[in-house]
């Protein structure tokens, strides 16, 4: 800040000052005052508004996530149920009309001449008399005495949390030894006691293995001393905990050659990523069947995403390249065409898919979408409105999200 009389002409040429009464203000300082805080509401499910149950801090509850974002994209073909009847117009529920007359009239079973003893088939069979039942008065319960007994008798609390906290540490550590990495991270956030037990049960090398199993493309630019903090930061940067939990693909599974054309093409595409990858783009398969890939995109220069590394999960169907792959962001990003769940509104992986497209070309299109959003059809209407009407705040929020969630390779854990 400086007064008018103290600013010299050469300084006015180099810096663009904004006149606010008797004080000149630097526009860079004005941009820093823009509110860069923005969070999507996650108290209730954004799809059912809490109708199917709690969402536990996620943007979708378990029921909505199961139906809207299925794990298996290789859906079996739907059964072709024909509405036309057969030649004899028999639906299978009608009473047969070709029975003998003696069967229907006299209760005989066809031409064998044997009498059918079923009472429903014999019209002359006598009806069984209903047994006599005594009228029983309803039993009256003394609710007042029950309530007085509950109030006067001392008993332990019914709190589940108290019962869990009373478990011995040896038992808890035995339970923790059977949990996976995401469950261990969730258990460490319950209370300080559980956090200390998880720290004693899981070593630093194990957290290192957990990190590179979930994020094989993660490359820190500093010497990591505590891998548990790095793992926690990467989990916090994921837009959906459900998708992150099921993205762990074991490599020891049996390999089934589903389509040789598909596997040969994916092998050639992976060879290109290893030898001559596109600038700022990497990808690697996660399983032997080439069905799950992880990719990373570097934020374009001169954009709010500059300096960030965004991870993506690519799921390839068995019918690839006839059907497009499913691409979803595994890192939180603030963009009009990317939903809070990480889904991408890109036509080349939807209805405009072509056999000439590859995984590398799809990732290049996603990278170019970061600098050229299409707000006419947006995945997040609030973000698109902010991009059109409040561009300074949009850039500030996008830059803040990039620094908080997409710079784990240079940002040390707290």
Automatic annotation (TrEMBL):
Example GO biological process: P450-containing electron transport chain
CDD domains: F-box_SF (cd09917), UEV_Morgue-like (cd23826)
Pfam families: F-box-like, UQ_con
Matches recorded under InterPro entries: Adrenodoxin_Fe-S_BS (IPR018298), F-box-like_dom_sf (IPR036047), F-box_dom (IPR001810), UBC (IPR000608), UBQ-conjugating_enzyme/RWD (IPR016135)
MF annotations from Gene Ontology: 2 iron, 2 sulfur cluster binding; ATP binding; ubiquitin conjugating enzyme activity
Coiled coil: none
Family annotation (PANTHER family): UBIQUITIN-CONJUGATING ENZYME E2 (PTHR24068)
Protein's UniProt name: Ubiquitin-conjugating enzyme E2 D4
Organism of derivation: Daphnia magna
């Amino acid at each position: 800040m400086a007064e008018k009389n103290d600013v010299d002409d050469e300084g006015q040429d180099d810096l663009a000052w904004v006149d606010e009464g008797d004080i000149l203000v630097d526009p860079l300082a004005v941009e820093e005052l823009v509110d860069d805080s923005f969070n999507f509401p996650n108290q209730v499910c954004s799809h059912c508004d809490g109708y199917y149950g709690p969402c536990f801090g996620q943007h979708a509850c378990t029921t909505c996530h199961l139906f809207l974002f299925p794990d298996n994209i290789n859906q079996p073909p739907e059964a072709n149920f024909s509405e036309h009847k057969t030649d004899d117009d028999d639906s299978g529920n009608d009473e047969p009309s070709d029975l003998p007359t003696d069967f229907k009239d006299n209760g005989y079973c066809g031409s064998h001449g044997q009498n059918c003893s079923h009472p429903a088939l014999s019209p002359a069979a006598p009806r069984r008399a209903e047994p006599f039942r005594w009228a029983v008065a309803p039993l009256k319960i003394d609710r007042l005495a029950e309530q007085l007994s509950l109030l006067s008798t001392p008993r332990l609390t019914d709190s589940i949390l108290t019962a869990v906290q009373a478990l011995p540490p040896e038992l808890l550590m035995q339970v923790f030894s059977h949990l996976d990495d995401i469950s261990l991270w969730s258990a460490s956030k319950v209370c300080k006691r559980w956090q200390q037990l998880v720290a004693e049960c899981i070593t630093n090398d194990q957290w290192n293995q957990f990190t590179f199993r979930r994020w094989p493309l993660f490359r820190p630019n500093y010497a990591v001393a505590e891998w548990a903090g790095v793992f926690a930061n990467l989990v916090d940067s994921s837009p959906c905990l459900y998708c992150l939990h099921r993205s762990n693909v074991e490599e020891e599974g049996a390999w089934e050659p589903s389509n040789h054309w598909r596997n040969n093409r994916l092998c050639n595409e992976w060879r290109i990523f290893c030898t001559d990858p596109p600038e700022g783009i990497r990808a690697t398969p996660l399983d032997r069947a080439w069905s799950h890939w992880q990719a990373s995109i570097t934020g374009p220069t001169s954009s709010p995403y500059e300096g960030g590394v965004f991870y993506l999960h690519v799921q390839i169907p068995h019918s690839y390249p006839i059907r497009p792959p499913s691409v979803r962001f595994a890192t939180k990003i603030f963009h009009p065409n990317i939903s809070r769940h990480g889904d991408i509104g890109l036509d080349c992986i939807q209805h405009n898919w072509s056999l000439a497209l590859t995984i590398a070309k799809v990732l290049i299109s996603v990278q170019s979408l970061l600098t050229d959003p299409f707000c006419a059809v947006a995945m997040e209407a609030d973000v698109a409105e902010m991009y059109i009407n409040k561009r300074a705040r949009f850039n500030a929020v996008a830059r803040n999200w990039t620094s908080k969630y997409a710079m784990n390779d240079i940002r040390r854990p707290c």
